[in-house]
Amino acid sequence: MARCPWAGAPGTMRDYHDQEWGRPVSGESAYFERLTLEAFQSGLSWSTILAKRPAFREAFLGFDAERVAALDAADTERLMADARIVRNRRKIEAALTNAAATVALRSSGGLEALVLEHAPQAPPAPRHTGEQQTTSPESTALSKALKRHGYAFVGPTTMFALMEAVGVFDPHLLGCHRRGEVTQ
Questions:
Q1: The domain 24-165 belongs to what CATH superfamily?
Q2: Cα–Cα distance between 166 and 158 in angstroms, integer?
Q3: Which of 21, 75, 25, 80 is nearest to 47 (CA)?
Q4: What is the pLDDT of residues 128-154, one digit of tens each?
Q5: Is 16 noted as a catalytic residue in this protein?
Q6: One of 28, 33, 38, 164 is an active-site residue; which one?
Q7: Total-model pTM
Q8: Which among 16, 21, 31, 151 is annotated as catalytic?
Q9: Catalytic annotation, pick one of 6, 20, 46, 66
Q10: Distances in whole angstroms, Cα of residue 102 to Cα of each of 22, 41, 52, 118, 130
């Protein structure tokens, strides 16, 4: 079966590719989770984050933005000591900052709506990995919009990965069995 090259071998990455990547999600916690995990992935492999995702979900209270926004300095230290997650102080602090920003954004339509507003008019349709993008004008605009709302660790590359992950557009290569399977 034809797949994007990074998902060729059986295991977690293939399962993620086949069952989750590029499929639309809905709800604040689903968007907040993906935004948080994409930020933690910065500089690391996605397989590392996937392996730690159950622990992230526990440590960050099911990605309930209100509950995460209520965490304090003692919680940051507790998270820094949790070997089951990525222990990077700046990323942990960004997750707490982003939780508060997500709660504040509710009055303006919410995180999900803001992300979806930045969907590309002409989604990419790469034939091979050499044509795949890592940023776009839309991911750059989303990054700037989120920063204006107080978010951290939301650069254009991270936001492009978020847009791929949550199915803002179909990220699969032409020829992949998943290409064209789901649309927003």
A1: Hypothetical protein; domain 2 (1.10.340.30)
A2: 12
A3: 21
A4: 999 999 999 999 999 999 999 999 999
A5: yes
A6: 38
A7: 0.96
A8: 16
A9: 46
A10: 22, 20, 23, 17, 35
